[in-house]
Design a protein that fits this description.
By secondary structure, the protein is of the alpha/beta class. About 55% of the residues lie in helices and about 10% in strands. The protein has 17 helices and eight strands. It has helices at about 5-10, 20-25, 30-35, 45-55, 60-65, 70-90, 90-95, 115-130, 145-155, 170-185, 205-210, 220-235, 240-245, 270-275, 285-295, 310-320, 325-360; strands spanning about 15, 40, 105-110, 135-140, 160-165, 195-200, 255-260, 280-285. The chain has an eight-stranded parallel beta sheet. Helix 10 links the parallel strand 5 and strand 6. The termini are far apart. The mean pLDDT is about 95.
Length: about 350
Amino acid sequence: MKPTRKLHDLGQSLWLDNITRELLNSGTLKRYINELSVTGLTSNPTIFDHAIAKSAIYDGDIASPASAAKSGEDLFFGLALADLTRAADLFQSVFARTDGVDGWVSLEVSPVLAHDTKSTLAAALDLHKRAGKPNLFIKIPGTPEGLPAIEEAIFAGVPVNVTLLFSREQYVAAADAYLRGVERRIAAGLNPAVASVASLFVSRWDVAIAGKVPGELTNRLGIAIGQRAYKAYRELLDSARFQRVANSGGRAQRLLWASTGTKDPKASDSLYVKALAAPFTVNTMPEATLVAYGDHGEVGETLAPDGGDCEAVLASFGKAGIDINALANRLQDEGASSFVKSWNDLMTVIDSKRTAMRKAS
């Protein structure tokens, strides 16, 4: 049995953190579903920037007369939705079999809206309507300005993947926003079963402090942060507040591990996958990480509900001069800025390709 299957059977959902038209056309995504137990997919502006910039497969759509009057943003979302709705169809059987727990794909609102609550909500509502797929999450950043938009989107019945979470505190704030939206639906007599995941980014922690801590702490911060968030997640699932919601038909917002590709070439290529094995969670993996884990990964002990040794490990980082809370805020800001850069690069690529093709014709 493949390691990916073992992890799936343990109760963790394995999603692919990638989408390209070539993955769809070649049958590779379908093969990952069949052979590597993949049950969902995530995307972000950087993924689409790479996919469109490094391939000619989208050029026909970009050059199409129908796209001539569209803005770069409208054209992009048309391309992205075309790919993601095809992917959503591939996961439809998983979605149906799990009654909407699994089988999701994700599309992010424009990252330039990360600090604009009103525009983020409007974009989320529009994209959800345009997609027309029950198993498509709209990704909204868990920034302070994103939290009210998350609550309002959930209240409006839009499934949300909360992205760019880096700490227990940021996760708890996102979970609270989700529950407020669900509780408001219950109070209004609406169906409270609106799905959501909360995406905690892991490996960027270790990249941020590489070379700044004693050797015995190398590649341990991201995992400790994950353990701490998992403890908060399990406490929330056991809380009277969530159980009241569940009793009314609401669902749990699953905790999702993001940024789980190993960045340190000296470390195991499945470091974070093995360390963050836990039932009723999601691990969305870069393609190389997924393939490597399917080939030679190991399934170790599952995460301890009480967070294990995370507090002792995090205390060691504090003694080494790492301010966890300040770094969490910095990483969230840098993550948002990185997606904005990828978005701007993507808009430039689309406009450049469209201009070049017009001249060529």
